[in-house]
TrEMBL record, chain A:
Positions with biased composition (Low complexity): 294-304
Region (Disordered): 291-362
Family named by the database record: Belongs to the RNase PH family.
Superkingdom in the source lineage: Eukaryota
Provenance organism: Daucus carota subsp. sativus (Carrot)
Exoribonuclease phosphorolytic domain: residues covered: 37-168, 197-263
GO BP term, example: nuclear mRNA surveillance
Any GO molecular function: mRNA 3'-UTR AU-rich region binding
UniProt protein name: Protein ECERIFERUM 7
Location(s), subcellular: Cytoplasm; Nucleus
TrEMBL record, chain B:
Family: Belongs to the RNase PH family.
GO terms assigned for molecular function: RNA binding
Protein name: Uncharacterized protein
GO CC annotations, alphabetized: cytoplasmic exosome (RNase complex); nuclear exosome (RNase complex); nucleolus
Annotated source species: Daucus carota subsp. sativus (Carrot)
Subcellular location(s) of the protein: Cytoplasm; Nucleus, Nucleolus
Exoribonuclease phosphorolytic domain mapped to chain residues: 18-148, 151-216
TrEMBL record, chain C:
Protein name as annotated: S1 motif domain-containing protein
PANTHER family the UniProt entry points to: EXOSOME COMPLEX COMPONENT RRP4, PNAS-3 RELATED
A biological process from GO: U4 snRNA 3'-end processing
UniProt record similarity statement: Belongs to the RRP4 family.
Source species of the chain: Daucus carota subsp. sativus
S1 motif domain span: 91-171
């Protein structure tokens, strides 16, 4: 309603007719079959809880952050999950910066319903102190490029980000046992969220008078279609949410058919997300390992490079002479650690690149 | 909490397949070109339609069809606690969009190019199923205004609690956290134009619940048709030949 | 206009009202109660060839279906649905009354209860003194001296433009700005197209203009010749004199005429609320009927009942004839 239609790109009659007539022979404008998805790539950023999804030309990023807040009065034992979208004007000329248009609100609410009402994320585990402090998880989705089917792409991005997000661990401690200590990631490993199931959104477009179904409509097809339906399902055969907001009418049998097709597609996408998350997790673990061993390797190899005579002696000498100083001087934690490690390695085989286990110190 | 007693009665004494009482009145708002007041049990809504009239914002004028605008608001006093923001919050924006797209599917917009049809719906008392009541009221108001439509649009909601599909949920049943399916159909062709669902449901149970809601919509359609016919006859009577 | 149900009729009034309704029903029953349809009802037709589908109908799977609520009319091979609450349907030559909402270059935009605003071109009105005079740039700049926003204007439909909006003209002296009266809005279907739309009610001394678009003007009678010239001349004189003298220059409308205007306006309101056709005769009769009642009582329940009863009489007598 409030959109500036003047800056919208309009579709030509020629393109419209072409899309409709080629669908009659089961062919879409970009060469896909009616029930094919476009190429989906899921990438992750360096931090936990950030993901970047590309579905054909549609480009979406999601970020998950957490904060300690007071819970709602009627739900004192549960954390909260909130979902925000940002439709950047660079994605589409009809998006305006600032206040979200009605389509942005609709997209936010579809994904919000799919995640929250179906209890995909376990909110009870987010409770820290009942009635006083709970974790509030906030998912921000930024639309970078609108190539059609923003709902599916944003949903996948949100799920991927949630799967890799880790929240800091916190324990009750302090003098009276009531103080909350939030452990920084260096001290304790952050904990992933408990996700019961992945609700995947599959969008159908209905084009033409015969209401031919297509999955994953592109930007062009969205301008032509007479109706759309977004079905959110998980791999257990449950329907989590459906949104068909007006548009052309379709028969009930067609709806059930859509649901069956969607469950197959949801399975595909779920496994893709899971694979991507797994590979991210292994890479993350590897990175942690690499960092530890690389730090000791540097310290050990330095004296080795310098001939190992004077410097190593001074190093070792300093350490030996002032063992208390290293304990007291906590200025640079890394330095101290490095020295301790060096001490340890110098005691052991200096050439060995031993794997140092224990809690991560980074 | 038990929503269906062992005898098969719900919290307000209805059977699972029973709808709440419907009441409709056409011509509730004098100044509007078409208006209606609709009640579904304790949910009361009022709808007013203005149009077709000149487009107020020239840049939005469509040269081949009418522009349909819709605004959904809930009165401050409609729910138990006073609402702080009657319109402009995300839920109202989404429901405005949903109602607009649903009505656009049935209005023959190409007969009225370069004009604007405004639909204003306000909820006076909310007790579950406000979306459905608003769509039913809007249909009545559009028919009252004499705007040509392909077909009526009627809507009804259904849910699934205590392993029973329930028709036409009220507020208590709705906030129980179970699934809520809202269906809007075009009665003549029995085609589904609006379908919204939240919370989890296995697929086969969902089919049953959707079927139940569709039956509810058909019942509403019969009632609306009767109301419209009666009003037309009454007007015709006064008008003479 | 007020709804009948909001009237508080006492018991006897209710009985009388219902009796009148029944009689109306009886009088009109023969013609058309079966023919009423709601949206999406099938219209029963014999499937002849060459059946013309008119307004308010559409084809659905080979059946003829109504798209609006109304009465089905059949004229030879044409089948259409006549709605009762629809918008005004313009035809060339209709007399309409409108309100100016915008002064644009060389034209005025009028609001006339239609899907789009109507356009009254500067070249389509008489500018006063010399009808044949060529229009100069001065005329354009002085458009505001003729009609300003919110003026009520009476005009004739010249034609329908390609984009659906109306083109108006006000070429003769009887059209133009209307002053000193009331503008009423009624649903357009209550005003039938007749030969004459201007009525001068002599006994009351008022002018009555029944616009086909549902805008009705009830005002003080002004001699139709040269009223626009009068305005122009008067205004140009005023410009030379003190602007403060404006009000004293205008003539004073007497209380009696104003009361008559109110009576006529209330009569129109009552007829509109009851849904009866509005013609000059009906209005005159209703005003006569109201002479026994105070003006503000005309909108009370007793008068409604009286009007309903007199309508029954009228229809009965017209049926006999």
């Amino acid at each position: 309603m409030e959109q500036r239609l003047a800056s919208t790109w309009r579709m030509s009659v020629n393109e419209k007719k072409f899309i409709e007539s080629s669908l009659l022979s089961d062919l879409r404008a970009d060469g896909r079959r009616p029930f094919d998805y476009r190429r989906l790539t899921i990438k992750f950023g360096r931090e936990d809880g950030s993901s970047e999804v590309q579905l054909g030309n549609t480009h979406v990023m999601a970020f998950v952050t957490s904060q300690l807040v007071q819970p709602y009065r009627d739900r004192p034992n549960e954390g909260t999950l909130s979902f925000y979208t940002e439709f950047s004007p660079m994605a589409d000329p009809s998006f305006e910066a600032g206040r979200p248009g009605e389509f942005a609100v609709e997209l936010g609410r579809i994904i919000d319903r799919g995640l929250r009402e179906s209890k995909a994320v376990d909110t009870e585990s987010l409770c820290v102190i009942s009635g006083k402090l709970v974790w509030a998880i906030r998912i921000d989705v930024h639309i970078l490029d609108n190539g059609g089917n923003l709902v599916d792409a944003a949903n996948i991005a949100a799920l991927a980000a949630l799967s890799t997000f880790r929240r800091p661990e916190c324990t009750l401690g302090g003098e009276d046992g009531q103080e909350l200590i939030v452990h920084p990631p260096e001290v304790r490993d952050p904990i992933p969220l408990i996700i019961h199931h992945l609700p995947v959104a599959v969008t159908f477009g209905f084009i033409g008078k015969e209401s031919i179904m297509v999955i994953d409509p592109t930007h062009l097809e969205e301008a032509v279609m007479g109706g759309r339906m977004t079905v959110t399902l998980n791999t257990n055969g449950d329907v989590c949410a459906i949104q068909k907001a007006g548009g052309d009418g379709i028969l009930q049998s067609v709806i059930m058919q859509c649901l069956r097709i969607a469950s197959v597609k949801a399975g595909d996408i779920s496994s893709k997300i899971k694979n991507a998350v797994e590979s991210f997790n292994t890479e993350r673990a590897l990175r942690k390992i690499k960092r530890h061993s690389s730090s000791s390797a540097v310290e050990v190899s330095e004296p080795a490079q310098k001939g190992g005579t004077e410097l190593s002696r001074t190093h070792v000498g300093r350490l030996n002479s002032t063992p208390e100083e290293s304990g007291v001087g906590q200025s640079n934690g890394m330095e101290v650690d490095g020295k301790i490690l060096q001490q340890e390695t110098s005691r052991r085989d200096s050439g060995a690149q031993s794997f140092i286990g224990g809690p991560s110190s980074w | 909490m038990e929503f269906v007693s062992p005898e098969g009665l719900r919290l307000d004494g209805r059977r699972p397949m029973e709808m709440r009482q419907l009441r409709a009145k056409i011509g509730a708002v004098d100044k509007a070109h078409g208006s209606a007041y609709f009640e579904m049990g304790n949910t009361k809504v009022i709808a007013a339609v203005y149009g077709p009239r000149e487009v107020q914002n020239r840049s939005q004028q469509l040269n081949d069809q009418a522009l349909v605008r819709c605004e959904y608001t809930m009165a401050n006093f409609s729910t138990g606690d006073r609402r702080r923001k009657p319109k402009g919050d995300r839920r109202s924006t989404e429901i405005s969009l949903v109602i607009r797209q649903t009505m656009e599917a049935c209005i023959m917009t190409h007969l009225m190019p370069r004009s604007q049809i405004d639909i204003f719906v306000q909820v006076l008392q909310a007790d579950g199923g406000t979306r459905s009541a608003c769509i039913n009221a809007a249909t009545l108001a559009l028919a009252d205004a004499g705007i040509p439509m392909h077909d009526l649009v009627t809507s009804c909601s259904a849910g699934y609690l205590n392993s029973t599909p329930l028709l036409d949920l009220n507020y208590v049943e709705d906030s129980a956290g179970g699934p809520d399916v809202t269906v809007g159909i075009l009665p003549k062709s029995t085609k589904v134009t609006l379908l919204q669902m939240d919370s989890k449901l296995p697929m086969d149970i969902f089919e049953n619940v959707m079927q139940l809601a569709t039956e509810g919509c058909k019942a509403v359609a019969n009632y609306i048709r009767e109301v419209l016919l009666e009003k037309t006859k009454e007007r015709q009577k006064f008008h003479g030949v | 206009m007020r709804d009948i149900e909001s009237l508080r009729l006492n018991q006897t009034q209710k009985l009388r009202f219902e009796k009148a309704l029944e009689q109306l029903d009886f009088l009109s029953a023969a013609a058309n109660s079966n023919a009423c349809v709601a949206v999406a009802d099938t219209i029963l037709v014999d499937h002849q060839d060459g059946l013309l589908k008119g307004h308010g109908t559409t084809d659905f799977d080979g059946e003829l279906v109504a798209t609006v609520c109304g009465v089905v009319e059949r004229v030879n091979k044409l089948v259409y649905v006549r709605t009762l609450r629809a918008r005004y349907k313009p035809e060339t030559g209709d007399i309409i009354v409108g309100r100016v909402i915008e002064v644009a270059p060389k034209r005025w935009r009028l609001e006339i209860n239609f899907t789009q605003d109507a356009v009254l071109m500067l070249s389509s009105i008489t500018t006063g003194e010399d009808i044949q005079r060529r229009q100069t740039a001065d005329d354009e700049l002085n458009m505001r001296s003729i009609f300003v926003e919110n003026d009520v204007v009476c005009a004739e439909v010249r034609g329908v433009q390609h984009d659906g909006s109306l083109h108006l003209q006000a070429r003769s002296q009887k059209y133009g700005k209307l002053e000193r009266g009331q503008l009423l809005t009624v649903p357009p279907y209550l005003v039938k197209r007749r030969k004459q739309h201007y009525h001068y009610l002599e006994q009351l001394g008022i002018d009555l203009i029944l616009g086909c678009n549902g805008f009705i003007w009830v005002g003080e009678h002004i001699d139709t010749k040269d009223d626009m010239v009068e305005d122009q001349v008067a205004k140009s004189e005023q410009q030379n004199e003190n602007p403060g003298d404006n009000f004293s220059k205008e003539t004073y409308t007497s209380v009696e005429i104003r009361q008559n205007i109110c009576r006529a306006a209330n009569a129109v309101r009552v007829l509109c609320a009851l849904g009866f056709n509005i013609t000059a005769d009906v209005i005159i009769e209703t005003v006569k009927l109201s002479n026994s009642v105070d003006i503000h009582e005309m909108l009370g329940p007793e008068f409604y009942v009286l009007v309903a009863e007199s309508e029954v009489e009228r229809r009965r007598s017209s049926k006999r004839i």
